[in-house]
Task: inverse folding
């Protein structure tokens, strides 16, 4: 059991000047005295004021790609940089203000309790505001594909809010740059990491524009899923006590 843990919250961002300051300002920094929180921006080639706005809002670390490499590449970099910065646990949250930063302690709680190594904020177990029908159906489809391939039920396989143990960060492989959501879960669960979904509140973005384009998503993600499932992976010997707080400590974090 650890007495003090460092959490890096990283935000992949491309041209999110309109929303990123609000996201950063709402990240809980002092929800437990045993948890040190730092915020990392992964600027994926933004051409607006994303970086300067984030610095003014209080981000602790900034890493910039010289051009827009894609969300998968940005999340991969976020995990790598979190390891380099000495994080015990990393949290990824989209910078578009669709996911609730206030619920970061909720998705950390199963890791602190020793119940999971990899958690996802589940919109479909929680509350959803404003999601259009075609996006909802697309989420259902890709989540069903993951559930079938992993032989375990998943409710929200495309969530943009996730937490990773140190081992999960080190072992995660994202094999394409366009996106990460499906291949990352397939990779980690196949390696033996324990996954848990946590209900969250979600509302569709009111500012900015999503990078997702339906045709590009289909033509990029489906081949990546097939490629991931055809790759051999080795089971990881997981330290299930690596981040666990005592019962009273875990309760304090989740409250």
Result:
């Amino acid at each position: 059991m650890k007495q003090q843990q460092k959490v890096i919250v990283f935000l992949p961002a491309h041209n999110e000047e309109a929303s990123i300051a609000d996201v950063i300002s709402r990240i809980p920094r002092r929800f437990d005295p045993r948890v040190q929180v730092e915020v990392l921006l992964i600027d994926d080639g933004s051409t607006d004021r994303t970086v300067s706005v984030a610095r003014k809002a209080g981000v602790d670390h900034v890493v910039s790609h010289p051009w827009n490499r894609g969300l998968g590449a940005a999340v991969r970099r976020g995990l790598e940089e979190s390891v380099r910065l000495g994080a015990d646990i990393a949290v990824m949250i989209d910078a578009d203000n669709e996911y609730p930063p206030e619920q970061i302690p909720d998705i950390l709680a199963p890791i602190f309790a020793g119940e999971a190594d990899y958690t996802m904020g589940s919109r479909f177990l929680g509350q959803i505001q404003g999601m259009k029908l075609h996006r909802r159906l697309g989420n259902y489809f890709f989540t069903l594909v993951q559930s079938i391939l992993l032989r375990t039920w998943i409710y929200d396989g495309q969530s943009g809010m996730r937490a990773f143990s140190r081992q999960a960060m080190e072992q995660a492989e994202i094999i394409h740059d366009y996106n990460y959501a499906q291949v990352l879960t397939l990779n980690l669960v196949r390696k033996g990491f324990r996954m848990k979904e946590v209900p969250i509140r979600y509302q569709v973005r009111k500012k900015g524009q999503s990078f997702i384009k339906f045709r590009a998503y289909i033509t990029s993600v489906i081949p990546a899923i097939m490629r991931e499932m055809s790759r051999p992976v080795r089971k990881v010997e997981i330290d299930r006590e690596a981040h666990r707080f005592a019962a009273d400590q875990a309760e304090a974090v989740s409250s």
